[in-house]
């Protein structure tokens, strides 16, 4: 048994096997730092944050300078409401003058919703490294996360710059993308712009709203490159966006990505908040499922629910299942589960699935949109589900931690992007029970 094998199991999401293998290896090699780290990742992926924290603390006793361990440390402390426990470990790292490490450290304080501390560290990094686009971009994200929208967006533009691509996105340049054609806010009058899919599908759904802004500025055509056909129907409903699945054979004057649209058009047009700017495609299978959901609900409200994402940066947003249990005792709600992977398996093992409707985990984005449009609302963590549901005008209860992604501008209850979305934020760090209690109150009041 080797660390490499355990890591392979972890990457394949075979968490039970990885856990057993890690235990076996650590039984023989209890001070194996690499094994401790991978084991902590496995526990974190299964939302067993107390166990993951225990492993990381042991690791840091053996190797206080293990950089990646600090990321797991802050995510676990945030989930458990133990910010003070992480501080001595972070403070030891504050002497570095390397721009990348300073930005990384500032991000760790952001994980703990300690925005003032994060701003202080990142301000020093930005001043010390004024030519580093990553340092300036990180400054912008932290400023916006702290609610400093205007100045934050100006610094955020460093992400959407040719310099950033030259420095940090050589992978795209190696694929033949011409960095000199990357759009940095120049005039688009009479031009054809290609929207490249950097980021996740939620980012594309959220920021395609700015296609309207490009058109208002005089753009001739906007081509939306989307490789995944499972979302084409939804995105084709975006006015003036021509969806293509391959850029070969298409001529365009410049290209950008969803974050570039936000960086350069938000200062001109604001949030472009609209009750609805995408339309769910017609789906016979989705319509049939919604009919069956309504029959099972027997007059109760039908609310979609998503509490976990397997993306690498979602650990701090995921809600441990135990906190959700009170929801399934609500007599006036029929829950429609949009979940997959380890979280779905854990849910099914509780026996609660018989009380709900569980949507197939292989459902397409187009089908999911059609199903959501037939429900009475959606409660979701910060994931593609919040953007999909918000963009088609559905009522959304956004279940949020104290540490919020920059795009939410440190708002407590109001979404600046989606008029029909209500943010329900942790009262204190790690307090998911408070979020669920407030969701119950809001649902009962809206009946």
From TrEMBL:
TPR repeats lie at residues 33-66. InterPro entries: TPR-like_helical_dom_sf (IPR011990), TPR_rpt (IPR019734). Keywords: TPR repeat. It comes from the Bacteria. This is Anaphase-promoting complex subunit 3. It comes from Hydromonas duriensis. The lineage of its organism: Bacteria, Pseudomonadati, Pseudomonadota, Betaproteobacteria, Burkholderiales.
